[in-house]
Amino acid sequence: MQRSEKGSLISEETRNDILRHAIEGITESVVISALDNRILFVNQAAARLFGRPAGELIGLSPSLIHSPHEEKNLVDVIHQATLEHGSWQGEILNRHSDGHESTSWLTTSIIRNSAGEPIALIGIGRDITERRRAERALEHSHETYRAAIENAAGVPYQLDLVSDTYVFMSEGIRELLGLEPEGLARDRIREMVREVIVVDPEGDRDPRKYGEAFKEGRISRHLVDLRVELASGEEKWLSDCSLPLRDEITGEITASIGILQDITQRKRTEEALRATSRMEATSTLAGGIAHDFNNLMVAVLGNASLALRELGEDHPLASMLRQIENAAEQAGHLAQQMLAFARGGKYQTRLVNLNESIREALRLQSRAIPPRISVKTELIDNLWDILADPSQMNQVIMNLWINAIESITGPGTVTLRTENIEIPKSRGALRPGPHVALTVADTGVGMSRETQARLFEPFFSTKFQGRGLGMAAVHGIVTNHGGQIEIESELGKGSRLRVLLPARLPEAQATREPDQSPAGKGETILVVDDEETVLMVSKAMLERLGYTVLLAESAREAIELAHSHEGEIHLAILDMWMPDLGGTEVFPALRLLRPKTRVLICSGYELDDSAQALLDEGACGFISKPFRLETLASQLRAALSG
Questions:
Q1: Dihedral-angle region of residue 270 (phi above 0 means left; psi in -120 to 50 means alpha; beta otherwise)
Q2: Other C-beta atoms within 10 Å of 67: how many?
Q3: Considering just the CA atoms, what is the radius of gyration of the chain in Å?
Q4: What is the pLDDT of residues 537-551, one digit of tens each?
Protein backbone atom coordinates (compact mmCIF):
# COMPACT_ATOMS: atom_id res chain seq x y z
CA MET A 1 0.00 0.00 0.00
CA GLN A 2 1.32 3.41 -0.94
CA ARG A 3 1.35 6.27 1.56
CA SER A 4 0.10 9.69 0.45
CA GLU A 5 2.18 12.82 0.79
CA LYS A 6 0.73 13.35 4.26
CA GLY A 7 1.56 9.82 5.37
CA SER A 8 -2.00 8.44 5.36
CA LEU A 9 -2.49 4.69 4.82
CA ILE A 10 -5.67 5.27 2.81
CA SER A 11 -6.94 7.89 0.47
CA GLU A 12 -9.41 10.56 1.41
CA GLU A 13 -12.01 8.95 -0.81
CA THR A 14 -11.55 5.58 0.89
CA ARG A 15 -11.78 7.17 4.30
CA ASN A 16 -15.06 8.85 3.37
CA ASP A 17 -16.45 5.54 2.09
CA ILE A 18 -15.57 3.83 5.37
CA LEU A 19 -17.21 6.57 7.38
CA ARG A 20 -20.29 6.52 5.18
CA HIS A 21 -20.69 2.75 5.53
CA ALA A 22 -20.15 2.93 9.32
CA ILE A 23 -22.82 5.57 9.65
CA GLU A 24 -25.18 3.57 7.43
CA GLY A 25 -24.66 0.48 9.54
CA ILE A 26 -25.57 1.84 12.97
CA THR A 27 -29.09 1.50 14.37
CA GLU A 28 -29.40 5.13 15.49
CA SER A 29 -30.78 7.64 12.99
CA VAL A 30 -28.20 10.17 11.72
CA VAL A 31 -29.14 13.48 10.09
CA ILE A 32 -26.49 15.97 8.88
CA SER A 33 -27.71 19.43 8.00
CA ALA A 34 -26.10 22.56 6.65
CA LEU A 35 -25.65 25.70 8.69
CA ASP A 36 -28.79 27.09 7.04
CA ASN A 37 -30.70 24.06 8.40
CA ARG A 38 -31.12 22.13 5.13
CA ILE A 39 -30.64 18.34 5.21
CA LEU A 40 -27.38 17.22 3.59
CA PHE A 41 -27.35 13.54 4.56
CA VAL A 42 -29.49 10.89 6.29
CA ASN A 43 -28.57 7.28 6.97
CA GLN A 44 -30.84 4.31 6.31
CA ALA A 45 -32.01 4.17 9.94
CA ALA A 46 -33.23 7.76 9.60
CA ALA A 47 -34.88 7.01 6.27
CA ARG A 48 -36.78 4.10 7.85
CA LEU A 49 -37.74 6.28 10.82
CA PHE A 50 -39.27 8.94 8.55
CA GLY A 51 -40.65 6.47 6.00
CA ARG A 52 -39.01 8.11 2.95
CA PRO A 53 -36.10 7.24 0.68
CA ALA A 54 -32.94 9.02 1.76
CA GLY A 55 -32.75 10.90 -1.54
CA GLU A 56 -36.13 12.55 -1.00
CA LEU A 57 -35.00 14.05 2.29
CA ILE A 58 -31.91 15.82 0.94
CA GLY A 59 -32.45 19.56 0.82
CA LEU A 60 -35.54 19.56 3.06
CA SER A 61 -35.83 21.40 6.33
CA PRO A 62 -35.72 19.09 9.39
CA SER A 63 -38.97 20.66 10.58
CA LEU A 64 -40.79 18.74 7.82
CA ILE A 65 -39.88 15.35 9.28
CA HIS A 66 -40.89 16.17 12.83
CA SER A 67 -44.36 16.06 14.35
CA PRO A 68 -46.64 19.10 14.01
CA HIS A 69 -47.71 18.29 17.58
CA GLU A 70 -44.20 19.09 18.78
CA GLU A 71 -43.53 22.37 20.48
CA LYS A 72 -43.65 25.20 17.97
CA ASN A 73 -40.27 26.11 16.44
CA LEU A 74 -38.51 23.33 18.40
CA VAL A 75 -36.36 22.45 15.38
CA ASP A 76 -35.25 26.08 15.10
CA VAL A 77 -34.58 26.16 18.84
CA ILE A 78 -32.40 23.01 18.56
CA HIS A 79 -30.54 24.46 15.55
CA GLN A 80 -29.83 27.76 17.29
CA ALA A 81 -28.87 26.12 20.60
CA THR A 82 -26.39 23.82 18.81
CA LEU A 83 -24.75 26.74 17.04
CA GLU A 84 -24.49 28.76 20.25
CA HIS A 85 -23.48 26.05 22.70
CA GLY A 86 -21.96 23.40 20.48
CA SER A 87 -24.51 20.71 21.31
CA TRP A 88 -28.10 19.93 22.41
CA GLN A 89 -29.94 16.87 23.68
CA GLY A 90 -33.52 16.01 24.51
CA GLU A 91 -36.69 14.29 23.27
CA ILE A 92 -38.30 15.03 19.94
CA LEU A 93 -41.35 13.66 18.13
CA ASN A 94 -40.79 12.31 14.60
CA ARG A 95 -43.38 12.05 11.83
CA HIS A 96 -43.45 9.01 9.53
CA SER A 97 -44.74 9.40 5.99
CA ASP A 98 -47.82 7.26 6.87
CA GLY A 99 -48.74 9.67 9.65
CA HIS A 100 -47.72 7.73 12.74
CA GLU A 101 -45.35 9.32 15.24
CA SER A 102 -42.36 8.09 17.20
CA THR A 103 -40.18 9.47 19.96
CA SER A 104 -36.38 9.84 19.76
CA TRP A 105 -33.72 10.91 22.19
CA LEU A 106 -31.77 13.37 20.02
CA THR A 107 -28.18 14.51 20.52
CA THR A 108 -26.76 17.25 18.22
CA SER A 109 -23.29 18.72 17.75
CA ILE A 110 -21.27 20.87 15.32
CA ILE A 111 -19.05 19.43 12.59
CA ARG A 112 -15.97 21.60 12.08
CA ASN A 113 -13.30 21.71 9.34
CA SER A 114 -9.59 21.41 9.91
CA ALA A 115 -9.48 25.10 10.74
CA GLY A 116 -12.08 24.66 13.49
CA GLU A 117 -14.80 26.47 11.62
CA PRO A 118 -18.43 25.16 11.74
CA ILE A 119 -19.40 23.60 8.44
CA ALA A 120 -22.46 21.46 9.36
CA LEU A 121 -24.59 20.07 12.18
CA ILE A 122 -25.10 16.38 12.99
CA GLY A 123 -28.00 14.89 14.93
CA ILE A 124 -28.04 11.32 16.24
CA GLY A 125 -31.38 9.98 17.44
CA ARG A 126 -32.21 6.85 19.47
CA ASP A 127 -35.75 5.53 19.13
CA ILE A 128 -37.33 5.43 22.64
CA THR A 129 -40.92 5.01 21.49
CA GLU A 130 -41.45 1.64 23.21
CA ARG A 131 -40.00 2.91 26.47
CA ARG A 132 -42.30 5.90 26.44
CA ARG A 133 -45.29 3.66 25.71
CA ALA A 134 -44.37 1.49 28.68
CA GLU A 135 -44.05 4.54 30.90
CA ARG A 136 -47.41 5.88 29.72
CA ALA A 137 -48.97 2.47 30.31
CA LEU A 138 -47.55 2.48 33.82
CA GLU A 139 -48.93 5.96 34.42
CA HIS A 140 -52.34 4.75 33.23
CA SER A 141 -52.10 1.72 35.51
CA HIS A 142 -51.09 3.98 38.38
CA GLU A 143 -54.14 6.19 37.83
CA THR A 144 -56.43 3.14 37.77
CA TYR A 145 -55.17 1.77 41.06
CA ARG A 146 -55.00 5.19 42.69
CA ALA A 147 -58.71 5.65 41.96
CA ALA A 148 -59.44 2.25 43.54
CA ILE A 149 -57.21 2.64 46.58
CA GLU A 150 -57.82 5.81 48.54
CA ASN A 151 -54.95 7.43 50.39
CA ALA A 152 -52.42 5.05 48.83
CA ALA A 153 -48.90 6.47 48.64
CA GLY A 154 -47.16 5.39 45.43
CA VAL A 155 -43.43 4.66 45.33
CA PRO A 156 -42.16 4.42 41.71
CA TYR A 157 -39.03 2.45 40.92
CA GLN A 158 -36.88 0.98 38.14
CA LEU A 159 -35.42 -2.46 38.72
CA ASP A 160 -32.40 -3.94 36.90
CA LEU A 161 -33.34 -7.61 36.52
CA VAL A 162 -29.77 -8.61 35.72
CA SER A 163 -28.14 -7.27 38.90
CA ASP A 164 -31.38 -7.43 40.93
CA THR A 165 -30.82 -3.90 42.20
CA TYR A 166 -32.96 -0.81 41.89
CA VAL A 167 -31.63 1.65 39.36
CA PHE A 168 -34.11 4.11 40.81
CA MET A 169 -36.24 4.01 43.94
CA SER A 170 -38.41 6.89 45.08
CA GLU A 171 -37.71 8.62 48.37
CA GLY A 172 -41.15 7.42 49.49
CA ILE A 173 -39.64 4.01 50.30
CA ARG A 174 -38.34 5.52 53.55
CA GLU A 175 -41.85 6.21 54.82
CA LEU A 176 -43.34 3.06 53.30
CA LEU A 177 -40.83 0.44 54.49
CA GLY A 178 -38.18 2.35 56.44
CA LEU A 179 -35.48 1.64 53.83
CA GLU A 180 -32.88 3.91 52.24
CA PRO A 181 -33.43 4.22 48.47
CA GLU A 182 -29.78 4.62 47.52
CA GLY A 183 -28.18 1.36 46.34
CA LEU A 184 -31.20 -0.67 47.43
CA ALA A 185 -31.01 -4.34 46.50
CA ARG A 186 -34.14 -6.33 45.72
CA ASP A 187 -33.17 -8.96 48.30
CA ARG A 188 -33.57 -6.34 51.04
CA ILE A 189 -37.28 -6.08 50.24
CA ARG A 190 -37.58 -9.84 49.69
CA GLU A 191 -36.39 -10.36 53.28
CA MET A 192 -39.44 -8.44 54.48
CA VAL A 193 -41.99 -10.30 52.31
CA ARG A 194 -44.12 -12.86 54.17
CA GLU A 195 -46.71 -13.61 51.49
CA VAL A 196 -47.09 -13.06 47.73
CA ILE A 197 -50.49 -13.12 46.02
CA VAL A 198 -50.78 -12.92 42.22
CA VAL A 199 -53.74 -10.64 41.47
CA ASP A 200 -53.30 -10.49 37.67
CA PRO A 201 -56.40 -12.35 36.41
CA GLU A 202 -54.42 -13.68 33.41
CA GLY A 203 -51.40 -14.79 35.44
CA ASP A 204 -50.35 -18.10 36.94
CA ARG A 205 -51.33 -18.31 40.62
CA ASP A 206 -47.85 -19.61 41.47
CA PRO A 207 -45.73 -16.48 42.14
CA ARG A 208 -42.53 -18.16 40.93
CA LYS A 209 -44.01 -19.27 37.60
CA TYR A 210 -45.70 -15.89 37.22
CA GLY A 211 -42.37 -14.10 37.71
CA GLU A 212 -40.67 -16.33 35.14
CA ALA A 213 -43.42 -15.62 32.60
CA PHE A 214 -42.87 -11.89 33.12
CA LYS A 215 -39.08 -12.13 32.57
CA GLU A 216 -39.62 -14.20 29.43
CA GLY A 217 -42.11 -11.68 28.01
CA ARG A 218 -45.09 -14.04 28.01
CA ILE A 219 -47.18 -11.54 29.99
CA SER A 220 -47.32 -7.79 29.52
CA ARG A 221 -47.28 -6.74 33.18
CA HIS A 222 -46.49 -7.97 36.65
CA LEU A 223 -49.16 -7.35 39.29
CA VAL A 224 -48.94 -8.89 42.78
CA ASP A 225 -49.90 -8.07 46.36
CA LEU A 226 -47.19 -8.42 49.01
CA ARG A 227 -47.57 -8.86 52.77
CA VAL A 228 -44.44 -7.42 54.38
CA GLU A 229 -43.20 -7.22 57.95
CA LEU A 230 -41.31 -4.10 58.98
CA ALA A 231 -38.41 -4.04 61.42
CA SER A 232 -40.81 -2.75 64.07
CA GLY A 233 -43.00 -5.85 63.69
CA GLU A 234 -45.77 -3.93 61.95
CA GLU A 235 -47.30 -5.63 58.92
CA LYS A 236 -48.33 -3.88 55.72
CA TRP A 237 -49.86 -4.93 52.42
CA LEU A 238 -48.32 -3.53 49.21
CA SER A 239 -49.49 -3.60 45.61
CA ASP A 240 -46.54 -4.07 43.20
CA CYS A 241 -47.38 -3.24 39.59
CA SER A 242 -44.55 -3.24 37.02
CA LEU A 243 -44.01 -3.26 33.28
CA PRO A 244 -41.05 -4.74 31.35
CA LEU A 245 -38.21 -2.80 29.73
CA ARG A 246 -36.39 -4.50 26.84
CA ASP A 247 -32.77 -4.11 25.86
CA GLU A 248 -32.73 -1.98 22.73
CA ILE A 249 -30.17 -4.23 21.04
CA THR A 250 -31.04 -7.78 22.11
CA GLY A 251 -34.74 -7.22 22.72
CA GLU A 252 -34.53 -9.17 25.99
CA ILE A 253 -36.29 -7.99 29.13
CA THR A 254 -33.51 -6.68 31.35
CA ALA A 255 -35.38 -4.24 33.58
CA SER A 256 -38.79 -3.22 34.80
CA ILE A 257 -40.42 -0.03 35.93
CA GLY A 258 -43.15 -0.14 38.52
CA ILE A 259 -44.84 1.35 41.50
CA LEU A 260 -45.35 0.15 45.06
CA GLN A 261 -48.55 1.24 46.80
CA ASP A 262 -49.66 0.83 50.40
CA ILE A 263 -52.97 -1.07 50.25
CA THR A 264 -53.10 -2.02 53.94
CA GLN A 265 -56.36 -0.16 54.50
CA ARG A 266 -57.92 -1.75 51.41
CA LYS A 267 -56.95 -5.22 52.61
CA ARG A 268 -58.44 -4.50 56.03
CA THR A 269 -61.64 -3.30 54.40
CA GLU A 270 -61.81 -6.44 52.25
CA GLU A 271 -61.28 -8.59 55.33
CA ALA A 272 -63.99 -6.64 57.15
CA LEU A 273 -66.37 -7.31 54.24
CA ARG A 274 -65.52 -11.02 54.35
CA ALA A 275 -66.04 -10.98 58.10
CA THR A 276 -69.41 -9.28 57.56
CA SER A 277 -70.41 -12.00 55.14
CA ARG A 278 -69.38 -14.67 57.64
CA MET A 279 -71.21 -12.73 60.35
CA GLU A 280 -74.43 -12.70 58.33
CA ALA A 281 -74.31 -16.48 57.94
CA THR A 282 -73.44 -16.93 61.62
CA SER A 283 -76.16 -14.55 62.76
CA THR A 284 -78.77 -16.43 60.71
CA LEU A 285 -77.68 -19.66 62.40
CA ALA A 286 -77.62 -17.98 65.82
CA GLY A 287 -81.11 -16.59 65.30
CA GLY A 288 -82.52 -19.98 64.39
CA ILE A 289 -80.83 -21.74 67.32
CA ALA A 290 -81.90 -19.07 69.82
CA HIS A 291 -85.50 -19.11 68.61
CA ASP A 292 -85.74 -22.89 68.93
CA PHE A 293 -83.92 -22.75 72.26
CA ASN A 294 -86.48 -20.31 73.63
CA ASN A 295 -89.29 -22.62 72.58
CA LEU A 296 -87.64 -25.47 74.51
CA MET A 297 -87.27 -23.21 77.54
CA VAL A 298 -91.02 -22.61 77.44
CA ALA A 299 -91.48 -26.30 78.24
CA VAL A 300 -88.80 -26.29 80.97
CA LEU A 301 -89.96 -23.09 82.66
CA GLY A 302 -93.66 -23.81 82.16
CA ASN A 303 -93.53 -27.33 83.56
CA ALA A 304 -91.37 -26.20 86.48
CA SER A 305 -93.95 -23.51 87.28
CA LEU A 306 -96.78 -26.02 87.03
CA ALA A 307 -94.99 -28.52 89.25
CA LEU A 308 -94.22 -25.82 91.82
CA ARG A 309 -97.87 -24.70 91.87
CA GLU A 310 -99.01 -28.31 92.22
CA LEU A 311 -96.62 -29.19 95.05
CA GLY A 312 -96.68 -25.89 96.89
CA GLU A 313 -93.89 -23.74 98.33
CA ASP A 314 -93.54 -25.96 101.42
CA HIS A 315 -92.72 -29.10 99.47
CA PRO A 316 -89.12 -30.43 99.77
CA LEU A 317 -88.73 -30.16 95.98
CA ALA A 318 -89.88 -26.52 95.83
CA SER A 319 -86.38 -25.06 96.09
CA MET A 320 -85.17 -27.35 93.31
CA LEU A 321 -88.06 -26.28 91.11
CA ARG A 322 -87.26 -22.63 91.82
CA GLN A 323 -83.69 -23.27 90.71
CA ILE A 324 -85.00 -24.85 87.50
CA GLU A 325 -87.19 -21.79 86.93
CA ASN A 326 -84.28 -19.41 87.50
CA ALA A 327 -81.96 -21.43 85.26
CA ALA A 328 -84.58 -21.52 82.49
CA GLU A 329 -85.04 -17.75 82.73
CA GLN A 330 -81.27 -17.19 82.56
CA ALA A 331 -81.12 -19.49 79.55
CA GLY A 332 -83.83 -17.34 78.00
CA HIS A 333 -81.69 -14.23 78.60
CA LEU A 334 -78.74 -15.91 76.88
CA ALA A 335 -80.97 -16.75 73.95
CA GLN A 336 -82.07 -13.11 73.80
CA GLN A 337 -78.42 -12.08 73.55
CA MET A 338 -77.98 -14.49 70.62
CA LEU A 339 -81.08 -13.02 69.00
CA ALA A 340 -79.73 -9.51 69.52
CA PHE A 341 -76.55 -10.62 67.78
CA ALA A 342 -78.61 -12.12 64.96
CA ARG A 343 -80.37 -8.77 64.45
CA GLY A 344 -77.00 -7.36 63.39
CA GLY A 345 -76.87 -4.59 65.96
CA LYS A 346 -80.42 -3.30 65.46
CA TYR A 347 -81.49 -1.24 68.44
CA GLN A 348 -84.39 -2.48 70.58
CA THR A 349 -84.55 -0.01 73.43
CA ARG A 350 -86.07 -0.52 76.87
CA LEU A 351 -85.30 0.61 80.40
CA VAL A 352 -81.91 -0.76 81.41
CA ASN A 353 -80.14 -0.65 84.76
CA LEU A 354 -76.38 -0.56 84.18
CA ASN A 355 -75.69 -2.11 87.59
CA GLU A 356 -77.56 -5.23 86.50
CA SER A 357 -75.77 -5.23 83.13
CA ILE A 358 -72.37 -5.01 84.84
CA ARG A 359 -73.16 -7.84 87.25
CA GLU A 360 -74.40 -10.02 84.40
CA ALA A 361 -71.27 -9.30 82.32
CA LEU A 362 -68.99 -10.16 85.23
CA ARG A 363 -70.91 -13.36 85.90
CA LEU A 364 -70.71 -14.52 82.29
CA GLN A 365 -67.08 -13.55 81.73
CA SER A 366 -65.52 -14.24 85.13
CA ARG A 367 -63.54 -17.21 83.76
CA ALA A 368 -61.93 -14.99 81.11
CA ILE A 369 -60.33 -12.64 83.66
CA PRO A 370 -56.58 -13.32 84.02
CA PRO A 371 -55.66 -14.35 87.60
CA ARG A 372 -53.25 -11.43 87.83
CA ILE A 373 -56.10 -8.93 87.32
CA SER A 374 -58.37 -7.87 90.16
CA VAL A 375 -61.79 -6.55 89.15
CA LYS A 376 -63.57 -4.27 91.60
CA THR A 377 -67.06 -2.78 91.42
CA GLU A 378 -68.32 0.40 93.06
CA LEU A 379 -72.00 0.40 92.07
CA ILE A 380 -74.26 2.90 93.82
CA ASP A 381 -77.68 1.93 95.09
CA ASN A 382 -80.76 3.40 93.38
CA LEU A 383 -78.93 3.94 90.10
CA TRP A 384 -81.20 5.63 87.58
CA ASP A 385 -82.31 3.61 84.54
CA ILE A 386 -81.41 4.49 80.97
CA LEU A 387 -83.41 3.92 77.79
CA ALA A 388 -81.11 1.70 75.76
CA ASP A 389 -80.62 -1.51 73.81
CA PRO A 390 -79.51 -4.09 76.42
CA SER A 391 -77.25 -6.03 74.08
CA GLN A 392 -75.55 -2.84 72.92
CA MET A 393 -74.93 -1.76 76.52
CA ASN A 394 -73.44 -5.19 77.23
CA GLN A 395 -71.09 -4.64 74.29
CA VAL A 396 -70.02 -1.24 75.68
CA ILE A 397 -69.28 -2.75 79.10
CA MET A 398 -67.37 -5.71 77.65
CA ASN A 399 -65.21 -3.64 75.29
CA LEU A 400 -64.33 -1.07 77.95
CA TRP A 401 -63.50 -3.87 80.36
CA ILE A 402 -61.38 -5.81 77.84
CA ASN A 403 -59.56 -2.64 76.79
CA ALA A 404 -58.72 -1.93 80.43
CA ILE A 405 -57.50 -5.48 81.10
CA GLU A 406 -55.28 -5.50 78.01
CA SER A 407 -53.64 -2.23 79.06
CA ILE A 408 -52.22 -3.94 82.17
CA THR A 409 -48.95 -5.77 81.51
CA GLY A 410 -48.55 -7.30 84.97
CA PRO A 411 -50.68 -7.53 88.11
CA GLY A 412 -53.24 -4.76 88.29
CA THR A 413 -56.77 -3.65 89.02
CA VAL A 414 -59.79 -2.73 86.91
CA THR A 415 -62.54 -0.81 88.67
CA LEU A 416 -66.10 -0.38 87.38
CA ARG A 417 -68.00 2.47 88.99
CA THR A 418 -71.53 3.85 88.50
CA GLU A 419 -73.10 7.10 89.68
CA ASN A 420 -76.01 9.44 89.05
CA ILE A 421 -74.98 12.85 87.67
CA GLU A 422 -76.94 16.00 86.91
CA ILE A 423 -75.59 17.90 83.88
CA PRO A 424 -76.36 21.61 84.49
CA LYS A 425 -75.75 22.82 80.93
CA SER A 426 -74.90 21.48 77.49
CA ARG A 427 -71.45 19.89 77.26
CA GLY A 428 -70.37 18.51 73.91
CA ALA A 429 -73.01 15.98 72.85
CA LEU A 430 -74.66 16.04 76.29
CA ARG A 431 -77.82 18.01 77.02
CA PRO A 432 -78.77 19.40 80.43
CA GLY A 433 -80.49 16.91 82.71
CA PRO A 434 -80.01 13.66 84.63
CA HIS A 435 -77.35 11.24 83.42
CA VAL A 436 -75.87 7.93 84.47
CA ALA A 437 -72.08 7.65 84.50
CA LEU A 438 -70.17 4.41 84.01
CA THR A 439 -66.45 4.72 84.78
CA VAL A 440 -63.89 2.03 83.93
CA ALA A 441 -60.51 2.74 85.53
CA ASP A 442 -57.34 0.66 85.23
CA THR A 443 -53.80 0.64 86.59
CA GLY A 444 -52.32 -0.06 83.15
CA VAL A 445 -49.66 1.63 81.06
CA GLY A 446 -51.75 4.68 80.26
CA MET A 447 -52.13 6.47 76.94
CA SER A 448 -50.20 9.22 75.21
CA ARG A 449 -52.02 12.23 73.78
CA GLU A 450 -51.65 10.76 70.29
CA THR A 451 -53.22 7.45 71.38
CA GLN A 452 -56.09 9.25 73.12
CA ALA A 453 -56.76 11.24 69.95
CA ARG A 454 -56.99 8.04 67.87
CA LEU A 455 -58.58 5.71 70.44
CA PHE A 456 -61.94 5.50 68.68
CA GLU A 457 -60.62 5.20 65.12
CA PRO A 458 -61.61 1.93 63.37
CA PHE A 459 -58.70 -0.57 63.21
CA PHE A 460 -56.50 1.56 65.47
CA SER A 461 -54.84 -0.62 68.10
CA THR A 462 -51.69 -0.47 70.20
CA LYS A 463 -51.98 -4.16 71.07
CA PHE A 464 -52.54 -6.67 68.28
CA GLN A 465 -52.52 -6.40 64.50
CA GLY A 466 -56.02 -6.64 63.06
CA ARG A 467 -57.70 -5.49 66.28
CA GLY A 468 -59.09 -2.05 66.94
CA LEU A 469 -62.85 -2.24 66.22
CA GLY A 470 -63.99 -2.58 69.85
CA MET A 471 -63.49 1.02 70.96
CA ALA A 472 -64.85 2.32 67.65
CA ALA A 473 -68.01 0.29 68.34
CA VAL A 474 -68.21 1.72 71.87
CA HIS A 475 -68.01 5.26 70.54
CA GLY A 476 -70.71 4.58 67.93
CA ILE A 477 -73.09 2.96 70.43
CA VAL A 478 -72.67 5.67 73.06
CA THR A 479 -73.11 8.44 70.48
CA ASN A 480 -76.25 6.82 69.05
CA HIS A 481 -77.70 6.66 72.56
CA GLY A 482 -77.17 10.40 73.04
CA GLY A 483 -74.15 9.95 75.30
CA GLN A 484 -70.50 10.96 75.46
CA ILE A 485 -67.17 9.40 76.46
CA GLU A 486 -64.54 11.25 78.52
CA ILE A 487 -60.90 10.12 78.76
CA GLU A 488 -58.37 10.78 81.51
CA SER A 489 -55.01 9.09 81.06
CA GLU A 490 -51.29 9.59 81.49
CA LEU A 491 -48.42 7.35 80.48
CA GLY A 492 -47.43 5.09 83.35
CA LYS A 493 -50.42 6.10 85.48
CA GLY A 494 -53.32 4.15 84.01
CA SER A 495 -56.52 5.32 82.32
CA ARG A 496 -60.03 6.35 83.30
CA LEU A 497 -62.84 6.21 80.72
CA ARG A 498 -66.20 7.61 81.74
CA VAL A 499 -69.38 7.01 79.72
CA LEU A 500 -72.25 9.44 80.29
CA LEU A 501 -75.76 8.47 79.14
CA PRO A 502 -79.13 10.24 79.51
CA ALA A 503 -81.13 8.82 82.44
CA ARG A 504 -84.80 8.16 83.11
CA LEU A 505 -85.69 9.40 86.59
CA PRO A 506 -87.57 7.00 88.94
CA GLU A 507 -90.77 9.00 88.81
CA ALA A 508 -90.87 8.56 85.04
CA GLN A 509 -90.62 4.81 85.32
CA ALA A 510 -93.67 2.61 85.40
CA THR A 511 -94.18 0.51 88.52
CA ARG A 512 -95.43 -3.04 88.35
CA GLU A 513 -97.56 -4.92 90.79
CA PRO A 514 -96.13 -8.22 92.04
CA ASP A 515 -97.32 -11.24 90.10
CA GLN A 516 -100.34 -12.74 91.87
CA SER A 517 -101.22 -15.44 89.32
CA PRO A 518 -104.88 -14.45 88.94
CA ALA A 519 -107.06 -17.36 87.87
CA GLY A 520 -109.26 -17.50 84.80
CA LYS A 521 -113.05 -17.71 84.75
CA GLY A 522 -113.50 -20.34 82.08
CA GLU A 523 -112.74 -17.99 79.17
CA THR A 524 -111.74 -19.64 75.89
CA ILE A 525 -108.12 -19.07 74.86
CA LEU A 526 -106.81 -19.92 71.37
CA VAL A 527 -103.08 -20.74 71.36
CA VAL A 528 -101.42 -20.46 67.94
CA ASP A 529 -97.88 -21.87 67.69
CA ASP A 530 -96.08 -24.23 65.31
CA GLU A 531 -94.12 -25.93 68.13
CA GLU A 532 -95.97 -28.89 69.69
CA THR A 533 -93.96 -28.55 72.92
CA VAL A 534 -95.08 -24.94 73.35
CA LEU A 535 -98.70 -25.90 72.65
CA MET A 536 -98.73 -28.70 75.20
CA VAL A 537 -97.17 -26.76 78.07
CA SER A 538 -99.31 -23.70 77.28
CA LYS A 539 -102.44 -25.87 77.37
CA ALA A 540 -101.45 -27.35 80.73
CA MET A 541 -100.69 -23.93 82.22
CA LEU A 542 -103.89 -22.34 80.93
CA GLU A 543 -106.09 -25.20 82.13
CA ARG A 544 -104.32 -25.01 85.51
CA LEU A 545 -105.30 -21.35 85.61
CA GLY A 546 -108.92 -22.14 84.82
CA TYR A 547 -109.23 -21.39 81.13
CA THR A 548 -110.72 -23.36 78.24
CA VAL A 549 -108.09 -23.98 75.59
CA LEU A 550 -108.12 -24.30 71.79
CA LEU A 551 -104.87 -25.24 69.99
CA ALA A 552 -103.74 -24.42 66.45
CA GLU A 553 -100.45 -25.81 65.08
CA SER A 554 -100.35 -23.41 62.13
CA ALA A 555 -101.62 -20.05 61.01
CA ARG A 556 -104.04 -21.63 58.57
CA GLU A 557 -105.48 -23.91 61.29
CA ALA A 558 -105.93 -20.85 63.53
CA ILE A 559 -107.89 -19.05 60.82
CA GLU A 560 -110.01 -22.17 60.26
CA LEU A 561 -110.78 -22.44 64.00
CA ALA A 562 -111.68 -18.76 64.17
CA HIS A 563 -114.10 -19.37 61.31
CA SER A 564 -115.63 -22.68 62.45
CA HIS A 565 -115.65 -22.56 66.28
CA GLU A 566 -119.24 -22.10 67.44
CA GLY A 567 -118.54 -20.57 70.82
CA GLU A 568 -116.84 -17.34 71.78
CA ILE A 569 -113.04 -17.02 71.63
CA HIS A 570 -112.11 -14.49 74.27
CA LEU A 571 -108.39 -14.23 73.56
CA ALA A 572 -105.77 -15.59 71.14
CA ILE A 573 -102.11 -16.06 72.05
CA LEU A 574 -100.46 -15.56 68.67
CA ASP A 575 -96.86 -16.60 67.92
CA MET A 576 -95.16 -14.02 65.69
CA TRP A 577 -92.99 -16.44 63.70
CA MET A 578 -94.46 -19.52 62.01
CA PRO A 579 -93.40 -21.31 58.82
CA ASP A 580 -96.59 -20.83 56.78
CA LEU A 581 -97.88 -17.41 57.86
CA GLY A 582 -96.55 -15.19 60.63
CA GLY A 583 -98.40 -13.16 63.21
CA THR A 584 -98.38 -10.13 60.92
CA GLU A 585 -100.54 -12.01 58.38
CA VAL A 586 -102.75 -13.90 60.89
CA PHE A 587 -103.62 -10.90 63.08
CA PRO A 588 -105.80 -9.03 60.50
CA ALA A 589 -107.58 -12.28 59.58
CA LEU A 590 -108.46 -12.92 63.25
CA ARG A 591 -109.64 -9.34 63.65
CA LEU A 592 -111.87 -9.73 60.58
CA LEU A 593 -113.36 -13.08 61.66
CA ARG A 594 -113.50 -12.34 65.41
CA PRO A 595 -113.61 -8.57 65.99
CA LYS A 596 -114.19 -9.01 69.75
CA THR A 597 -111.33 -11.48 70.28
CA ARG A 598 -108.38 -9.94 72.06
CA VAL A 599 -104.90 -10.87 70.81
CA LEU A 600 -101.79 -11.33 72.93
CA ILE A 601 -98.56 -11.36 70.87
CA CYS A 602 -96.03 -14.04 71.83
CA SER A 603 -92.47 -14.39 70.54
CA GLY A 604 -89.10 -15.91 71.26
CA TYR A 605 -87.68 -12.53 70.21
CA GLU A 606 -87.85 -9.37 72.24
CA LEU A 607 -90.37 -6.74 71.20
CA ASP A 608 -89.37 -5.75 67.64
CA ASP A 609 -90.82 -3.52 64.95
CA SER A 610 -93.20 -6.19 63.62
CA ALA A 611 -94.65 -6.93 67.07
CA GLN A 612 -94.87 -3.21 67.88
CA ALA A 613 -96.81 -2.65 64.66
CA LEU A 614 -99.44 -5.20 65.81
CA LEU A 615 -99.64 -3.52 69.21
CA ASP A 616 -100.24 -0.23 67.42
CA GLU A 617 -103.01 -1.89 65.39
CA GLY A 618 -104.86 -3.14 68.47
CA ALA A 619 -103.09 -6.16 69.98
CA CYS A 620 -103.53 -5.98 73.75
CA GLY A 621 -100.11 -7.10 74.96
CA PHE A 622 -96.78 -8.85 74.36
CA ILE A 623 -95.26 -11.81 76.18
CA SER A 624 -91.71 -13.02 75.58
CA LYS A 625 -90.70 -16.70 75.62
CA PRO A 626 -89.92 -18.41 77.92
CA PHE A 627 -92.41 -17.31 80.59
CA ARG A 628 -93.43 -18.36 84.10
CA LEU A 629 -96.94 -19.40 85.04
CA GLU A 630 -97.31 -16.21 87.10
CA THR A 631 -96.26 -14.00 84.17
CA LEU A 632 -98.72 -15.71 81.83
CA ALA A 633 -101.53 -15.39 84.36
CA SER A 634 -100.94 -11.67 84.90
CA GLN A 635 -100.69 -10.94 81.17
CA LEU A 636 -103.94 -12.81 80.46
CA ARG A 637 -105.89 -11.17 83.22
CA ALA A 638 -104.66 -7.71 82.18
CA ALA A 639 -105.58 -8.40 78.55
CA LEU A 640 -109.04 -9.77 79.36
CA SER A 641 -109.82 -6.99 81.81
CA GLY A 642 -108.66 -4.16 79.53
A1: alpha
A2: 16
A3: 42
A4: 899 999 988 999 999
